[in-house]
User: Which sequence fits this backbone?
C-alpha cells in the first residue's frame, strides 16, 4: 500500500511484471535452491528408511528399508515433484509449498499414528523423522520464493497448445487418471492409509494447479467442449466395469448419483439465484414418497403400480408444486427470512411424514420398494456386458448418470440463458435487477420450483435404490449436507456439485471409524474452505474471473511497493 | 400539451413514517427537469416510487396519460421509463458488456437492435467499449457512473431518471457525466435528474423543483431558480 499504482489503465503492466520477475529471481536464487534440494534429498532418504521400529500391524510395511510402500511412496513421489520444480524455482512458490507441506502433513500424520498405535514415540523409527525434517526444509525454501502474477501464467498456458489430437489426448489422460485414482483409492482399506492417499492426491493436485495445470485443463476442455463432455460420460460409465462384479462401491456410486442430481438442483437455487434454501431435502423426500407409494411396495398404503417413467415425472411435478406453494408467499421476503421459512418447511414435511400413519405409515416408513421394472428390464438383476458381470446396482448407477447428464444439460443452458443472467443479477443486487425490468418475484419462484423439480426427480430414483423411505432420512442434517456439497465443490458450477457430493459420500464410507465425527470434520473442512478457497474446489468461471481481477488489482496496489523494498 | 410525466399529490411512507408528503410535479417531453434537495429530503423515495420499486400511499403518477402508480416495476421499464439508481448499483461481477445487456433485459429477442444500442452507448462512453470484457467492479467510481447511465439507456427509454449521478465523483468526472447529459439532452432525451449538486443540475435544467422534508417548496425554470435567493443561500452555499 505504500506506493499506490499511478497506472489506472494498466498499460504499464507488462513492464512492471518483468521488473517483478527479475527482482524475484535476484532475491530467491542464492539460498532457496540448495535448501529445497536438501529438503527433497532428506525426504527421499527418509522415505527409503524405516518409519517404525517394530512391526505391529501398521499398514505400508513401514519397518522395511528401501521399500517405499503406502505413505512412504507418497512422500517419495512428492519429493521427486519437489526436485523437478526446484530446477526452475523462481516464481513457483505455491508449487514448492504444496509438495513440501504435503510431505510434512503425510509424515507428521503417520508419525503420530505410529506413535499412538505402537505405544509411544519409541515405535517411531528415524526414517519418519528424516522425512518430517525434509518437508520442513522444503517448506522454508518455498516460503522464500515469490509467486508471479496469476494472469501472466494463465495467458502463457492459454496460448500454449494448438494441436487438437494432443489436446484431446490430454483430456483422455486426465479423465483416465481420475478414474484410476478413484479405483485405487477405493481399494485401500485401512483408514490411515486412505487418509495418506487423500492427502497425497490433494497436495499433488495443489502443486499441479499451482504450476498452471488447472488453467491448462480448463482452457483445453473449453476448446473441445463436446469431446470433454463425451469423455467424461464414458469415464463415468466405465466405473462399474472396474469393480470386478463387486457391488459395494457401485451401490455407493448410485447413492452419489442421486445426491449429485439433487445437489445440482440446489445449485440452481443457491448458486445461481442466490436463495438460501435450508429445507431442500424435503423436496427430495416428496419425490421419494411419491415414488414409494406409486410402485406397490411391500408395506405400502396405496396399492397401485405406476410405470417408473410416469412416476419420475409425477414425483418431480409434485415436488415442484410444493416448491411453488412454499415459494409464492415467502420469496418476497429478504434472504434470511427465506432461510428460516424453508427450514420450517423441511421440519413440517418430516413431522407430517412421521405422523400421517394412514398414508406414510409414520416412523416405520414404506419399505420393500421393488426394483424398477421398465418394459421387462429388471433393475435388480445383474447383467453381463463385455464378459464383465455388472451387479444390479449398476443399472441404477447408469440411470442416474442419465439423470445427472440431463440435469447438467438443463443447468448449463439455464446458466447461459437470459433467465440465468437475470438470476445472477438478482443475486448480485436485487433492487438494481428490478430497476432493469427483471420480474424478480417470478424468476425467484421459477428457480425455487426448478430446484424442487430436480430434487423430486432424484428422490423418485432414490426410493428404489434404498428400497425404503422413512421420515428420518429427510432431516435438516441432510439439507445441511447437500448445502455443504454445493459450497465445498463450488457454488454455481456443475463439476463442483458432483465433486462435493462424491467427497461427502465416499469419505464417510471409507473412514468408518470417523463416522460419528463426520459432521464435525465437514464443519472444519468448510471453515478451512471459507478461509483459503471461498470459491469452492472448482470455481465457476465468473468467480474465477472476479478473483483473478481482484488479485491483479491487488497486485497493482502492492507489488510496486515490494519491488521498491527488494 | 399533456406532460410526459405527471405526479399528483404523491404520498409515500416507510411504515408509519411519511417520507414524501404530497408532492406534485410535471415533466414535459424533451425537457431536463431536476429535483434538488438536501440529504433525506425524499428525492430517492420519489424516484423509486415513479419507477415502481415502491408503492405510494396516496396520489397518482401518470406517464404519457396513463396511471402507472400501481404498475409493477418490470412493466414500467417496458413502457419507457429507465431508472439509474442512487449509488450506481452496477453488477460488479459481471462484465461491462453483460451489464449493458442486462439493461436491455426488457427488450427480449431483439438481439440485433440491442447490439446497435450497445454500440451507441460505446460511442457515448468510448472507455466502456475499450474495456467491455472487464468486470464492472474493477471500474473507478466515475466509470461505474458512466456504466450506470449507459445501462439505463439500454432499455431505449423515453424518460430517463438519474438519482444523484454526481455522488462521490471528482470534479473532473462530474464534469464528464454532466457533459454527457448535455449531449443526451441535445439528442432530445427527456431527463428527470435528482441532485444535491444544485449548481450543476440547475444550469442544465429547463425546469427545477426544490424538495425539503418531503414537500416541494419551490418550482421554477432552471435559470430563475439559479438566481433565486433562497436557493443560493440553502443550496449554493452563499450568504
Ligand atoms: N428504507 C427506508 N426505511 C425507512 N425510512 C427510510 C428508508 N429509506 C429512506 N428513508 C427515510 O425517508 C426519508 C427520505 O429519504 P430519501 O428519499 O432517501 O432522501 P434523499 O434521497 O432526498 O436523500 C429520510 O428521512 C430517510 O431517513
Ligand atoms: Mg437519495
Assistant:
Amino acid at each position: 500500500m505504500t506506493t499506490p499504482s499511478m497506472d489506472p489503465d494498466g498499460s504499464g503492466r507488462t513492464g512492471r511484471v518483468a521488473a517483478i520477475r527479475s527482482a524475484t529471481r535476484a532475491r530467491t536464487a542464492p539460498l532457496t535452491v540448495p535448501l529445497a534440494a536438501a529438503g527433497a534429498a532428506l525426504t527421499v532418504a527418509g522415505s527409503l528408511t524405516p518409519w517404525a521400529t517394530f512391526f505391529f500391524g501398521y499398514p505400508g510395511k513401514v519397518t522395511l528399508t528401501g521399500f517405499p510402500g503406502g505413505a512412504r511412496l507418497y512422500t517419495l513421489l512428492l519429493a521427486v515433484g519437489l526436485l523437478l520444480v526446484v530446477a526452475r524455482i523462481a516464481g513457483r512458490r505455491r508449487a514448492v509449498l504444496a509438495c513440501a507441506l504435503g510431505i510434512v502433513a503425510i509424515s507428521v500424520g503417520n508419525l503420530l499414528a505410529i506413535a499412538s498405535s505402537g505405544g509411544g514415540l519409541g515405535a517411531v523409527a528415524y526414517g519418519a523423522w528424516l522425512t518430517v525434517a525434509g518437508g520442513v526444509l522444503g517448506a522454508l525454501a518455498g516460503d522464500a520464493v515469490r509467486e508471479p502474477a496469476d494472469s501472466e501464467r494463465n495467458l502463457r498456458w492459454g496460448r500454449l497448445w494448438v494441436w487438437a489430437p494432443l489436446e484431446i489426448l490430454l483430456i483422455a489422460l486426465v479423465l483416465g487418471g481420475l478414474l484410476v485414482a478413484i479405483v485405487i483409492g477405493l481399494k485401500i482399506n485401512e483408514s490411515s492409509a486412505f487418509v495418506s492417499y487423500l492427502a497425497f492426491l490433494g497436495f499433488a493436485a495443489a502443486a499441479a494447479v499451482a504450476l498452471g495445470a488447472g488453467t491448462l485443463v480448463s482452457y483445453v476442455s473449453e476448446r473441445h467442449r463436446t469431446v470433454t463432455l463425451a469423455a467424461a460420460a464414458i469415464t463415468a460409465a466405465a466405473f462399474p466395469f472396474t469393480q470386478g462384479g463387486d457391488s459395494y462401491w457401485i451401490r455407493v456410486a448410485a447413492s452419489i448419483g442421486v445426491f449429485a442430481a439433487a445437489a445440482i438442483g440446489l445449485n440452481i437455487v443457491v448458486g445461481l439465484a442466490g436463495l438460501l434454501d435450508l429445507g431442500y431435502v424435503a423436496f427430495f423426500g416428496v419425490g421419494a414418497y411419491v415414488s414409494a407409494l406409486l410402485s406397490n411396495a411391500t408395506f405400502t398404503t396405496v396399492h397401485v403400480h405406476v410405470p417408473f417413467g410416469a412416476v419420475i415425472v409425477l414425483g418431480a411435478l409434485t415436488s415442484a408444486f410444493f416448491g411453488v406453494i412454499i415459494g409464492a408467499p415467502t420469496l418476497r421476503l429478504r434472504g434470511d427470512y427465506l432461510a428460516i421459512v424453508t427450514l420450517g418447511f423441511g421440519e413440517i414435511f418430516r413431522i407430517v411424514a412421521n405422523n400421517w400413519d394412514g398414508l406414510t405409515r409414520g416412523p416405520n416408513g414404506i419399505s420393500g420398494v421393488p426394483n424398477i421394472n421398465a418394459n421387462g428390464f429388471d433393475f435388480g438383476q445383474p447383467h453381463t456386458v463385455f464378459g464383465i458381470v455388472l451387479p444390479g446396482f449398476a443399472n441404477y448407477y447408469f440411470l442416474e448418470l442419465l439423470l445427472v447428464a440431463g440435469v447438467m444439460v438443463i443447468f448449463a443452458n439455464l446458466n447461459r440463458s437470459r433467465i440465468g443472467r437475470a438470476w445472477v443479477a438478482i443475486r448480485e443486487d436485487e433492487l438494481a435487477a428490478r430497476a432493469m425490468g427483471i420480474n424478480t418475484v417470478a424468476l425467484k419462484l421459477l428457480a425455487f420450483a426448478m430446484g424442487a423439480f430436480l430434487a423430486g426427480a432424484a428422490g423418485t430414483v432414490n426410493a428404489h435404490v434404498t428400497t425404503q423411505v422413512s421420515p428420518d432420512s429427510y432431516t435438516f442434517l441432510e439439507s445441511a449436507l447437500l448445502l455443504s456439497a454445493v459450497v465445498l465443490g463450488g457454488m454455481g458450477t456443475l463439476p463442483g456439485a458432483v465433486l462435493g457430493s462424491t467427497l461427502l459420500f465416499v469419505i464417510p464410507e471409507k473412514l468408518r471409524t470417523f463416522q460419528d465425527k463426520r459432521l464435525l470434520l465437514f464443519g472444519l473442512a468448510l471453515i478451512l474452505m471459507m478461509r483459503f478457497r471461498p470459491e469452492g474446489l472448482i470455481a465457476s468461471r465468473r468467480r474465477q474471473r472476479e478473483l483473478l481481477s481482484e488479485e491483479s488489482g491487488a497486485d497493482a496496489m502492492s507489488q510496486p511497493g515490494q519491488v521498491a523494498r527488494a | 400539451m399533456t406532460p410526459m410525466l405527471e405526479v399528483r399529490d404523491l404520498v409515500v411512507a416507510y411504515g408509519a413514517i411519511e417520507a414524501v408528503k404530497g408532492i406534485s410535479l410535471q415533466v414535459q417531453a424533451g425537457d431536463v427537469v431536476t429535483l434538488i434537495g438536501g440529504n433525506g429530503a425524499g428525492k430517492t423515495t420519489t424516484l423509486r416510487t415513479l419507477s415502481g420499486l415502491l408503492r405510494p400511499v396516496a396520489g397518482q403518477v401518470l406517464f404519457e396519460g396513463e396511471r402507472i402508480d400501481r404498475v409493477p416495476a418490470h412493466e414500467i421499464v417496458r413502457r419507457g421509463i429507465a431508472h439509474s439508481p442512487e449509488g450506481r448499483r452496477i453488477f460488479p461481477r459481471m462484465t461491462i458488456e453483460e451489464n449493458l445487456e442486462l439493461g436491455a433485459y426488457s427488450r427480449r429477442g431483439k438481439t440485433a437492435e440491442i447490439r446497435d444500442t450497445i454500440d451507441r452507448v460505446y460511442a457515448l462512453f468510448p472507455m466502456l467499449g475499450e474495456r467491455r470484457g472487464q468486470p464492472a467492479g474493477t471500474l473507478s467510481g466515475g466509470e461505474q457512473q458512466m456504466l450506470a447511465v449507459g445501462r439505463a439507456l439500454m432499455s431505449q427509454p423515453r424518460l430517463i431518471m438519474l438519482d444523484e449521478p454526481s455522488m462521490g465523483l471528482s470534479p473532473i468526472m462530474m464534469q464528464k457525466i454532466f457533459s454527457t447529459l448535455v449531449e443526451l439532452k441535445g439528442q432530445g432525451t427527456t431527463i428527470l435528474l435528482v441532485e444535491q449538486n444544485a449548481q450543476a443540475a440547475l444550469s442544465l435544467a429547463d425546469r427545477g423543483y426544490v424538495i425539503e422534508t418531503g414537500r416541494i417548496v419551490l418550482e421554477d425554470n432552471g435559470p430563475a431558480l439559479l438566481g433565486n435567493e433562497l436557493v443560493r443561500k440553502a443550496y449554493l452555499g452563499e450568504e
Q: What stands out?
A: Residues B 43-44, 86, 164 surround magnesium ion (ligand 2) (CB under 6 Å).
